[in-house]
């Protein structure tokens, strides 16, 4: 079995790498536009494929299926509600970002506020990506591959090892080794290729991920049906655990229904509208119409997300809940058990592509934030294009090494996806609040933007980490996501109040800094309306 798994793994990995090299071998990568934005030449299929796979890494495949293992269908909110955020991106945020001609979100904040606001935003983004996002990508990837490929049996590591006075258990050795290997491969990819190279590789792996993810769901449902077919498996789950197939999250679950309108909505809006790691793909669009089509195609594909990001977790609960399997182990175990051996290798290769995609996207965005934000503005303002790109590549290596060391330390979380969403709120909410107020109110001064970022991060961190007797979240009995909604509202009110008391002398105007065609796609509004109606229909269909 391991032979077929390894052969199919190597075959698909080699195919994806060769095809990507062939397509992008003549791309220009020496300028900052070429390296970070693909020369602003991306078309809508590439944008959609890249957006989808940048999002669909193992923190989604492993983590969200793990959340479904715990809570059932209600966690589909992270996929379905994302459609609303993508509609907002296509119709409201993207036209403004592309008109500005920016490479990073902090650059927009500099245009709207000042260099100080940009620097604060850069520091927040860099800290969050280096200490949180990238280590979680490595950790969840290592856990998923370990279970999927049964690395303990494959490597023969079954005894503790003493190293520098510490005794490491076999699972810890595999976790550290896999995290480091993924980190090294990802660093090589990120250093050798610019955004378009990564985007093309994303698209190739994206096709494999969609096909493989749906196959896993089909095989898993067949396993749940004891040979009676996928429909029999679905009926068996409905009969055994009907409460786990409701779209309406209950109190005590990770996504109660009421939080869809507060923290969950805000986290999705930040993620798809102002998260540098994600939206950098859209900044490379060849035109506004191509960008909008790419974003809305991504939204349509997200509606399929529950099929391969939620249902397998529900099936895994049905099959393994009594076996002591943890939430984050469930998906890898399911893949290993239900897929034929050749398909396990193929899907593991796709998963490696997904891991490298998110890892590379985070590294590429981190290097852009560092080189264009801090290096170009603070360290070496007179630096040439070649120096900027070289600084970015050096910073990629430093960040990757730090992430490799941090990743294994995340072991022990009850749900890595829940932990990720909680920690994301610390910086998601302040940045989104400042961007939204900056776009909607042209008189709010720069000091309001800086205060919004600093006070937002500090306020949410205090709400998360203060001890219980003086913790405002527990004292008020708030769900963590409702708390994020309260902080967002307070930040907006504070910035508007500053704007009313001490407004800018002149109203801010967004000047054009881009030469691409900014004509909107003529069908954008109709497509957006259809997508919103489909979201409502899905929730109604599974409400119980």
Helical content band: over 70%
Count of distinct structural domains: 1
> What is the name of the CATH topology?
Sodium/glucose cotransporter
Give the strand order, joined by hyphens, for the main sheet: 1-2
CATH class descriptor = Mainly Alpha
Write down the overall mean pLDDT.
Answer: 83
* CATH homologous superfamily annotation: Sodium/glucose cotransporter
The appropriate CATH architecture is: Up-down Bundle
Give the terminus-to-terminus CA distance.
42 Å
Relative strand content: under 5%
**What is the β-strand count?**
2
Low-confidence stretches: 28-39
The sequence of SSEs as H and E is HHHHHHHHHEEHHHHHHHHHHHHHHHH
The main β sheet shows up as: 2 strands, antiparallel
| Count of individual helical segments | 25
Choose one word for the global shape: globular
Task: Look at the helices and sheets and give the structural class.
Answer: mainly alpha
What is the CA-based Rg, rounded? 23 Å
